[in-house]
Structure to design on (532 residues):
């Protein structure tokens, strides 16, 4: 296989995705991260198209890139202008990058209907634009826009556009599936035709409208292209661009093409999440290679297999891409899931342990009642500890009561306010504490009452904050009498943990999640003190 160069267009094409708008500072940070990943070419934007991209190229001069080359993007000259006076080409020169990419038409209908010129003039536009930029000492890539649609409609003219750029001295012609509707077989056929017509390095730039962007990119590489364009996380207009986070590991680990080093590949998951954060886009946990669930095992058979042989249910070692395996527990779990998770938490269980079977049976029973531990590792860890004969909980609930009242404000006959009050009775050691607290709602009142009861014994509880609270109705057809699941995320300012509760009563479900959250933190604090 030939050496393949990676070309990232997240900062230009990726930014065209609905809902994404990078600030200049964000673009500079992403460029630095892409350099760390080992991307060969970073397309920074379209200088002259908007003030932001122009500013980026000015500030990007201060970047200390070790692996990447910055690329300015633009288009061929306007049909009615001369190259020496074309504003777009001048802006590319003024960006002062060593490499520029220009996009031009290769589909005859686009030439006549969109560019509003004839086919002969289109070839002249391409050749003159490439020649002008080459005369400035620049490395020039030509994006043959809509190439595969153009090849199907008028193969002669499509190939002629590549020939025109080649004769003008272009350094690489990038064949584009701009509408994202080509099939892998069509990609391969068109590339073979181009290879017979010209001897010039070829690249591939595809969109994902048919869900085939990654497959089409890999097919193109196998057909002989040496430059692959795409974006981090597949960001881009409509259905997105080809996803480099899937393409890069496939090139390196599946096709044996060393496009980046092993150390750089191990940063892939980090870069994916970093760019998602700056793009303000939630990253799907099911993203191949980099998603949180990409190497998650839920079925008991899978977990058991992974424990015996890590590769039994994983197509690669997740550490190669900076990810890690995870086993979750559910009603589908077997003993292997329990043992694997326990080992992660430093608890030694075996398939013959009484506690292993006890926890497994308890999980199956609780999940039939609406509990779910996949997203509540803290509650699951408590199940494991509670199954140990020597475990003593830091407190025990005896009972609680919550009242919610509506009061008319004395100052107004029309306005009213709600008052929530919770009373809790808990046991700590040999003492029983009975106390009450008010809150702006029943859950807040419960939380305050529990803390108030425990602060005498555990004064550090003040650092805990509830940072997320989610409620899910499990049986919609049951209406207000349905089973409720509550998921709570807590933090002590340094770490976060999730706990959950389930009941037909939302207050009880909330209490179970709240109490687990406090007990889990106290358990961890006690372990930390023992280590010291």
């Amino acid at each position: 296989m030939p050496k393949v160069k990676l070309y990232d267009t997240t900062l230009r094409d990726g930014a065209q995705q609905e809902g994404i708008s990078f600030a200049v500072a964000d673009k500079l940070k992403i460029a630095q991260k892409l350099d760390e990943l080992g991307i060969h070419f970073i397309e920074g934007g379209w200088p002259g198209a908007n003030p932001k991209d122009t500013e980026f190229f000015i500030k990007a001069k201060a970047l200390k890139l070790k692996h990447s080359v910055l690329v300015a993007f633009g288009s061929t000259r306007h049909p009615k202008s001369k190259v020496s006076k074309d504003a777009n080409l001048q802006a590319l020169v003024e960006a002062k990058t060593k490499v520029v990419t220009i996009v031009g038409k290769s589909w005859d209908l686009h030439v006549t209907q969109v560019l509003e010129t004839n086919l002969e003039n289109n070839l002249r536009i391409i050749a003159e634009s490439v020649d002008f930029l080459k005369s400035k000492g620049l490395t020039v890539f030509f994006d043959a826009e809509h190439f595969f649609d153009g090849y199907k409609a008028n193969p002669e003219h499509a190939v002629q556009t590549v020939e025109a750029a080649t004769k003008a001295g272009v350094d690489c012609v990038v064949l584009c599936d701009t509408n994202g509707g080509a099939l892998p077989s069509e990609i391969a056929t068109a590339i073979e035709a181009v290879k017979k017509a010209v001897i010039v390095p070829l690249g591939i730039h595809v969109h994902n409208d048919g869900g085939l962007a990654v497959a089409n990119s890999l097919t193109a590489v196998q057909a002989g292209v040496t430059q692959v364009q795409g974006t981090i996380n597949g960001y881009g207009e409509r259905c997105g661009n080809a996803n480099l986070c899937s393409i890069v590991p496939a090139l390196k680990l599946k096709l044996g093409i060393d496009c980046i080093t092993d150390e750089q590949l191990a940063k892939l998951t980090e870069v994916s999440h970093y760019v998602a954060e700056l793009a303000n886009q939630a990253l799907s946990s099911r993203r191949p290679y980099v998603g949180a669930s990409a190497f998650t095992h839920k079925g008991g058979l899978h977990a058991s297999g992974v424990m015996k042989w890590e590769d039994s249910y994983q197509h690669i070692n997740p550490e190669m891409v900076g990810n890690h395996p995870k086993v979750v527990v559910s009603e589908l779990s077997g003993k292997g899931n329990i043992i694997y998770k326990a080992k992660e938490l430093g608890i030694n269980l075996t398939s013959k342990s009484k506690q292993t079977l006890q926890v497994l049976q308890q999980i199956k029973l609780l999940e039939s009642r609406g509990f779910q531990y996949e997203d509540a590792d803290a509650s699951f860890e408590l199940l494991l500890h509670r199954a140990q004969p020597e475990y003593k909980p830091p407190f025990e609930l005896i009972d609680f009561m919550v009242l919610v009242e509506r009061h008319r404000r004395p100052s107004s006959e029309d306005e009213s306010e709600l008052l929530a009050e919770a009373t809790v009775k808990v046991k700590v050691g040999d003492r029983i504490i009975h106390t009450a607290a008010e809150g702006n709602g029943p859950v807040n009142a419960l939380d305050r009452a529990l803390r108030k009861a425990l602060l005498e014994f555990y004064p550090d509880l003040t650092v805990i904050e509830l940072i997320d609270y989610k409620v899910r109705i499990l049986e919609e057809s049951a209406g207000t009498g349905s089973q409720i699941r509550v998921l709570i995320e807590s933090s002590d300012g340094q770490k976060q943990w999730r706990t959950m509760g389930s009941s037909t009563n939302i207050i009880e479900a909330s209490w179970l999640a709240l109490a687990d959250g406090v007990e889990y933190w106290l358990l961890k604090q006690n372990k930390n003190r023992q280590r010291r």
Remarks:
- The domain at 5-279 is CATH 3.20.20.70 (TIM Barrel).
- The chain has four domains: 5-279, 296-368, 395-457, 462-532.
- The longest helix spans residues 506-531.
